[in-house]
Amino acid sequence: MPFVREKANPLITPEQVRPWLEGFRVMGTFNAGAARFGEEILLLLRVSERPPEAAEGFVNVPEMTQREGKWTVGIRTLSLGDPRYDFSDPRKVLDRETGSYVFLTSISHLRLARSRDGVHFTVEDRPLIRPEGELEAFGAEDARITRIGDTYYINYTAVSRHGITTALAETEDFARVRRRGVIFVTENRDVCIFPERIGGKYHALVRPVPRQIGEAKIWTAASEDLLHWGEYAPLPLPRFDWDGMRNGGGAVPLKTDRGWLILYHGADRESNRYSMGAALLAAEDPRKVLAVSREPVLYASAPYETEGFYPNVVFSCGALLEGDTVWMYYGGADRVMGLARANLTALLDGLERT
User: Fold this and answer.
1) Are 31 and 315 in contact (CB under 8 A)?
2) Which residues are registered as beta bridge partners of 154?
3) Burial (Cβ within 10 Å: 0-12, 13-18, ≥19) of residue 146
4) How far apart are CA 89 and CA 135, in angstroms?
5) What is the distance between the alpha carbons of residues 199 and 178, in angstroms, rounded to a whole number?
6) What are residue 254's DSSP bridge partners?
7) Binning pLDDT at 50, 70 and 90, where does residue 329 land?
């Protein structure tokens, strides 16, 4: 693997982070978007919190409700013997009649972590983006940060009973955030917006999920204003065993002198293990794949990647190019944050032409 793990991994763990919600427990600090802001490296963490344990035979789940125009997070208690529900997935509660997940066992928000050296982080106590409104009633997750000019655009996953959507926010200072609303409807996730216009338009990697025909894989889209998207096309990316079940965008694309470097995730069919791959897209047309990694550039093997809330997962939402070194920040086992680095030239030289 071209990426080498930072010796200090994991960089951020749930034990280091204070809960936002009173009485809740922090279960995960993972899948962070990354940005350089002045002299700092910022991570926008997904922080998942879980209600306190219920009495034996019951389970507590978070529930957002609206009162007098304000959304708050409360707790609902469900009986494990209730025949309406399937509790076999520790992350979700399934309604047996409809076949839909009607509760999550945790709720996520997006919180800043700050560092001068990119390794040692201080995590803020309050969310930068908290779940708000009907379309975020199950949480705000998995942010990516794209800087265009002086504005940092934050796209993130908004989850609710209505499905999984992608929302957009923007900031200039990471103190005040303007929400722009949903930009991709359910189920379209793993959105990565390119950090500059290409051919006069904004471009993004997206991942629609077919329900009847087709497979979950990366597509491209284009926009005039970052809010309204079209020109959808599947990315002609070769598939391998390691991403045979699904693949999707990871970190925001990095511009190099050879084209756009994308670091994307994939899951295999045998064990649903999540790994990271790399590909090179044409600088003038990101719909063209120039080269790809046949094997993962990073796969779950360290204990903090193979053991956790959802084991055998490495999943990146943010990467930075520091000189000739790629810094890839990634979530491990849906629980912790890690960092791995690769020499850019060696990484590009190791890709196979398509």
Assistant:
1) yes
2) 145, 169
3) buried
4) 22
5) 27
6) 261
7) very high
pLDDT band for position 211 (cuts 50, 70, 90): confident
The CATH classification number of 4-353 equals: 2.115.10.20
Residues facing 278 on adjacent strands = 263
Q: Which helix (H) or strand (E) holds 306?
A: helix 303-306
DSSP 3-state percent helix, strand, coil across the chain (nearest 5): 5, 55, 40
Give, in order, the Cα–Cα distances in Å from 20 to each of 107, 108, 131, 132, 238.
11, 10, 12, 14, 42
DSSP string for 189-258: EEEEE-SS-BTTBEEEEEEE--SSSS----EEEEESSSSSEEEEEE------GGGSSEEE--SPPEEETT
Tell me: cis bond preceding 124? Omega within 30 of 0 counts. no
Query: 96-111 burial string, b = 16+ CB within 10 Å, else e?
Result: eeeeebebbbbbbbbb
Side-chain-side CA neighbours of residue 7 (13 Å): 0
- Sorted by sequence, the CB contacts under 8 Å of residue 174 that are 6+ apart come out as 37, 42, 112, 128, 152
From the number of C-beta atoms within 10 Å of its C-beta (0-12, 13-18, 19+), residue 150 rates as exposed
Average pLDDT, the chain: 96
| Average of per-residue pLDDT across 254-259 | 98
Instruction: Give the residue from 254, 280, 283, 154 showing the smallest Cα distance to 195.
Output: 254
